[in-house]
Amino acid sequence: MTAALRCVIVRDLLLAARRSSDVLTVLLFFVIVVSLFPLGVGPDPALLRTIAPGVIWVAALLASMLALQRMFASDHADGTLEQMLLGATPLGMTVAAKVLAHWLISGLPLVLISPVLALQFDFPQELLGVLALSLALGTPVLSLIGAIGAALTLGLRGAGALLSLLVLPLYVPVLIIGAGAAEAAASGMGGHAQLLLLGALLIFAGAFAPWAAAVALRISVE
Amino acid sequence: MGKKAGTPSLEALDLHCVRGERKLFGALNFTLRGGGLLRIGGANGSGKTSLLRIACGLLEPTRGEVRWRGEDIRRLQEEFRRQLVYIGHADAIKEDLTPAENLQVACTLAGNRAQRAQVGEALRRLGLAACEHLPTRVLSRGQRRRVALARLALSEHAPLWVLDEPFTALDAAAMDCVRGMVAEQVSRGAAVIYTTHHETDIAAGTAQRIELGSGTAA
Q1: B82 touches chain A (CB under 8 A)
Q2: Which domains does chain B have, with CATH numbers?
Q3: Does B26 reach chain A within 8 Å, measured CB to CB?
Q4: Domain of A56?
Q5: What are phi and psi of A79, to 5 degrees?
Q6: How many independent structural domains does chain A possess?
Q7: Does the predicted model carry a pTM greater than 0.80?
Q8: What's the angle, vertex CA A147, arms to CA A146 and CA A148, rounded to 5?
Q9: Tens digits of per-residue pLDDT, B85-115?
Q10: Which residues of chain A make contact with B106, given a CB cutoff of 8 A?
Q11: By C-alpha distance, which of B133, B41, B155, B120 is closest to A83?
């Protein structure tokens, strides 16, 4: 079973490597959206410092939204999804492997580049770690919740718009807690509470979302 | 692995299938034993693919049930799926991977770890030796179908094969090869279900045939 899960992850990473434009689109979208704010809001360092965590978090959320639709779409189109449904591994585990691969491709690059982007906002350097850590804990939750939405809207017309309507409200708690971590740290309260909450959300979503997505996939493939 | 010729392997009991507003078939029964071959015929849209998808548990029948060795496949879940090889209408092939990588992934997903040498052997058997390391993107439709079917050469252990239009886009040589593999598998005591439009006969011990009608309004 672990062989099958490793195979799914390696395959998805290999496909992403051979079609790197998909990965770069998401990353560039994130960089550009974040960079638009200092240009639009103006060069007031105090204001920029205040809005930095919120802006970076909203941009990360939209960027991961952008990549969501692709999570199952190509496997559905070419019949691989049917083979996964018929595979020897429980579908929930396969979905978890796919979500992990999806996060490595579309979530991890955002986490890694976020400290660089935060510098544009004159964000205090000692707090960059908290910001990156909040994203590292939060973006997998976004991928996990998004997997349920992507599975439910698979093969539908106008799936993209429907997916956003379905998933964005569910992202709200993650956004509030995630952006709150860096803000709390900036105001001197420390962001531990928020980070722990994000960790709890991650464990909770990791345990349940793959199975919910698996049920949704079975319905979509019928 | 079943040399259980004579014991019923796959049974369909009173299957009904309604897709959209159309009734594709109703009160369909069949029993397939180890070493049995079942061919499903019928016009386009008569429900051949739906029947195969029901038989492997991808689609819920509107009524009725499918049993594998006496047990409902919905209860057996992975236990049934491990015994099954399904080659669907879609090839389940990634264009950016090579035939060898595609085949390796397909086998691993099915819980069957194939060695690199075995994968190469399977591809050679289907006449794909020359394009083993090209991306599947550059292959023709028929060659991609061969890649999908090469999985059969690595699935001799599976007691049930379900093949949806295996001969589409294949040339005469590849058709012969697939017919040969099916005949061998049946003689090993496995059960095989397939659909086809081609007037082709596979030499096998107990061959059955089901013709699906044109369907009626539900």
Answers
A1: yes
A2: 1-83+162-218 (3.40.50.300), 94-157 (no CATH)
A3: no
A4: 2-221
A5: 90, -5
A6: 1
A7: yes
A8: 90
A9: 999 989 999 999 999 999 999 999 888 888 8
A10: 83
A11: B155
